[in-house]
Amino acid sequence: MWYKILFLSMPVLFIYYDILYEMGLDWWRDENYSHGFLIPIVSLYLVAKKWDSLKRDPISPSWWGPVVVAWGLFVLIVGVAGAELFTMRISFIFVIVGLILCLFGKEVLKGLSFPIFFLVFMIPLPYIVYNSLTLPLKIIASKLAVYFLSPLGIPVFREGSIIYFPEMTLEVVEACSGIRSLMALIALGTLFSYFFQSSLLKRILLVSSTIPIAILANALRITITGVLAFYLGLKVAHGFFHYLSGWLVFLIAFVCLMLINICLNRIKG
């Protein structure tokens, strides 16, 4: 069986080498997708965790395998023709599914369904989706930040994603839209739901909770930046403390996600 895996993996890796390499560069160059390095590692860990049960599953290669592989390669061709990176990259997952069906069958694929699905989180969003999300996220975060800053006695005025102080302005740029923490939290919430929740409804609630958590966490970060800018100046606000607040706020968001997970576990049903 191993020689079959090797025989089929080599041409797939040859076909997708440039695509996977460029995706790795995106993880390295773009902080919004730096979590991509962890996703394949987590998926491999999930496979290793299920290895004993997978070995007990009956091996029954399915003729649906070549169909799915062909579909994945068709999606790849469409992506190459349209120069659409997301389409090219998502086709890799279709091909993986097809190869598992070819070699092992439906029972093994069922056992590997979540580790394979989790790989979706390693693929950067299509630019059209990314751009359509960043603007509303910036607006919401800046609105909430102004709402939090006003009771602190700090005079502020907002126009779009720009926050005006008496002697300075603070612009919520694309990098501070919160989309990075949103994607990372959704991946974490999905992982938590897999490990700790058995009910489909609770899984949906846990994953859905990551959206308001991420938005509020990012608004809190902008609020902290605003406080630092007002009292200590923009140079301090955009310096070391800005990056420190990012990690601190993400930690708070992570704790909130854990608390929601605990609360859901205590609800019967």
Low-confidence stretches: none
Query: How large a portion of the residues is in β-strands, by DSSP E?
Result: under 5%
Q: What fraction, in percent, of the residue positions are helical?
A: over 70%
What is the N-to-C order of secondary-structure elements (H for helix, E for strand)? HHHHHHHHEEEHHHH
* Global geometry: elongated
Alpha-beta classification = mainly alpha
The major pleated sheet works out as: 3 strands, antiparallel
The count of β-strands is 3
* Distance from first to last alpha carbon: 42 Å
Identify the strand order in the major beta sheet: 1-2-3
| Mean pLDDT figure | 86
Rg estimate, integer Å: 22 Å
Question: Count the helices. How many?
Answer: 12
Q: Please, how many domains?
A: 2
Description:
75% of the residues lie in helices and 3% in strands. It is mostly helical. It has 2 domains: 2-122, no CATH class; 128-266, no CATH class. A 3-stranded antiparallel beta sheet has the order 1-2-3, covered by helices on one side. Helix 9 runs parallel beside helix 12. It is elongated, with a radius of gyration of 22 Å. The mean pLDDT is 86.
